[in-house]
Design brief:
The structure is a homodimer. The first copy, chain A, is α/β, with parallel strands linked by helices. In chain A, 44% of the residues lie in helices and 18% in strands. In chain A, the strands form three sheets. In chain A, strands 1-2-9-6-5-3-4 form a seven-stranded mixed β-sheet, with helices on both faces. A two-stranded antiparallel sheet of chain A has the order 7-8. Chain A has a two-stranded antiparallel ribbon with strand order 10-11. In chain A, strand 1 and strand 2 form a beta hairpin.
Chain lengths: 360, 360
Amino acid sequence: MQVDVHLGARAYPILIEAGLLAKPQKWIDFIHGKHAVIVTNTTVAPLYLAALQKNIVQHHKKIITVVLEDGEAYKTGTSLMQILDAMLAAKCDRKTTVIALGGGVIGDVAGLAAALYMRGVTLIQIPTTLLSQVDSSVGGKTAINHPLGKNMIGAFHQPIAVLIDPDTLTTLPKRELRCGLAEMIKHGAALDAPYFEWMQNNTKAILELDLSALATGIAESCRLKAGVVERDERESGERALLNFGHTFAHAIEVGAGYGTWFHGEAVAAGMVIAAQLSSAVTGCPSEVGQKIQALLAEAHLPLTPPKMSFDRWYELMSLDKKNNAGKIHFVLLESLGVSRIQAVERETLQQSMQGFTVSV
Amino acid sequence: MQVDVHLGARAYPILIEAGLLAKPQKWIDFIHGKHAVIVTNTTVAPLYLAALQKNIVQHHKKIITVVLEDGEAYKTGTSLMQILDAMLAAKCDRKTTVIALGGGVIGDVAGLAAALYMRGVTLIQIPTTLLSQVDSSVGGKTAINHPLGKNMIGAFHQPIAVLIDPDTLTTLPKRELRCGLAEMIKHGAALDAPYFEWMQNNTKAILELDLSALATGIAESCRLKAGVVERDERESGERALLNFGHTFAHAIEVGAGYGTWFHGEAVAAGMVIAAQLSSAVTGCPSEVGQKIQALLAEAHLPLTPPKMSFDRWYELMSLDKKNNAGKIHFVLLESLGVSRIQAVERETLQQSMQGFTVSV
C-alpha cells in the first residue's frame, strides 16, 4: 500500500508493506549521496540494524551508525549533538541521507539532526513502533524535549519517504503496541467517526497482530494524518486537532517524569479528561466520552491520570505550544470525529477536572 | 529606503534609514504576540538596548533580554540554549517575537533560536554592524559553529523584517567597518561589475562614515543579495555564489582559531586566493585579481592569509558545505562580476596555492 503526502516540492510517499525492509529495490533510490547515517537505539539495533546495513552497503553507500539509549529520557540535546558530532567527524556532506530506524523518539531526534545538519539534509523515516507508524513519522515534526517542556525545541523537516514494515511489530512489546492504538483511537475520535467505528471492530485483531488489520489501520491513520498535514503543514490551524488529549498528556508525562508514563498511555488518559471537558464546554454528548473510554479499555490503556493538584496541572499545561495570549487552548470534541480548538478559562477547567485532581 | 525580499508567503521588507531605531511607529507592528525577546551582546547592549526596550515597552509588550558575550567564540550551542532556556523560563508562547540586536553572530544565534523555539517563531533582525547590514541579516540563514566547522548546525528561517539604522555604524570599531566593506566588495566582484566600480569610487567615503554613501551601498548590497535569495532560497545553486572567497575564509577562521581573524578579514584574504585560483581554472584575467587586491588594500583589509601547510588547508576545506561527492567546490570568477561554482582537483589547488602555503 502507498499513501502519498501532497506537499508540493516537499511531497513524499509512505510505503506500507510487510517485509518492506528486506526489499531494498523498493527504497534504495531514496538514499541520496554517498553517506547514509542510520540513527537507531539499543533495543532496535539488535533486531533490524544489521539487515538494513547489509541492504544499503550493497549499493555502495558509506554507512555511519549512531545507536542511542532507548527511551523518551534520551530525546535530548545531548542525543542530538551525538548524531551531529558523528556526522561531522565522518565529514558527511550536504547530500547525506539520515535514516531514522526506530520509534517516535528516534524519528524526532534524528529528524531534527537532519533538519539542522548544514541547514538540512535528506531524511528517511523507518518507524518500527505502531505509534510512530500511525502518527509521528508522518508530517515532518521533529523535536527534542527540554526540562521545562516536551517538544519545545524543534523544526518542521519533511522526510523524502516513510518506510513502514508492519513485520517489525512482531517484536514490539505489547505495552508499546497499545500506545500505538491510543493514537489510532485519537485519529478516529477527533477526525473521523467511521474510522472510530472501524477501530471498535478491529482493536482486538490489531492487539493479536493480524497483519491485514494492521496494514489497513496504519494506512487509514496515515491517510487521515496526511490530509491534515497537507492542509496545514506548519500547524497554524487544523493540524493542532491532531493534539486531541495531548495538552493533558504532556502534563502527565512531565509531571510523572519522562518515561514513567509512555506517551500513548498519557494520550489515552488525556483523551478521557479532554472528552469530559468537551462535554462541559461544547456540549459534546457524554456517550462520546463513554465510547472512547470503552475502546481505550478494550485496548488495555489507562483511563485515569496520576493524581496531581490542579495548580500543578495548570502550571504544566501553561507551557503548551497551542497556548496564546496567556490562555490554555484545548482540542475539544463537538461530537465523535468532529473537533475544534478553544481557550478554556481556568475556573471552567478546574471544575471539569475535579475528579482528576487532589488538594495539596 | 526600502528593499523588498520577494519570497511568497515568507516575503519581507528591509528598511534602511538613519535614526530608524528611534522611530518605533515604523516597525512596532512587526512585533507579534505579547513577548519580545531581545538577544544582544555585551558590546551592543550599553549602546542601544535601553532605547530599544523603552520604545517597545511603550507598546505594552513584555520584554525578555538575553545578553551574550561578544564574539564569534560565543556562536555556540551553549549560547543557543541560553536563549531557549530564557524563553521557556518566561513561558514565551508561539506568537513570541525574537529580536536580534547586534552583528552577524547575534543574528545567526538568535535566528536559530527563533527557528527552533516551538518549531519556529517570528524573527526581526536589527543588524548593528556593516557586515550584518550588507550581508548576514538578509536571506534567512541561521547557524551556530561546531568545533569541526563553521555554521555546520543551522536552519533557514526568514525574518519578518530587517531594520537597518546606519547611525549605529558611528559606534562601530573601524576594524569591523572594514569587515563589512569586504562583503560589499565581494558582492561587486562575484555578482555585479558596476557595483564593484561604485565601490572603487566610494570606499573612502564609507570608511569616513559618509551616511549617504553608506545608505546607498547598504541598499545596493541588500538588493543584490535579495535577488539571489529570491531565485535560490535554500542554496541549491546560485545562492552559493555569495560564498566567493568563503571556502578559504572558513579555513582561515578555523585554522587560526575562531576570533583571531574576523570573518570579513578572512573573506578578504580568501578572495585574493580565490581570484588567483580563478585565473588558473577559468582563465579569469589576472587584472581582475589585481583590481580586487587594490580595492581591498584601499579598505585596509588583509591580502595575505596566515601560513598553513597545504594538507592543513585541504583538511579544513574538506568540510565545506558546498562540497559534494568528496570534491572541494569553489566559487570562481569568470570575469569581474561573473562567477560560477566548480570542483577543483587537489593537484590544481595545491599548485595555485603555492604562494600561500608552508611545508611542514
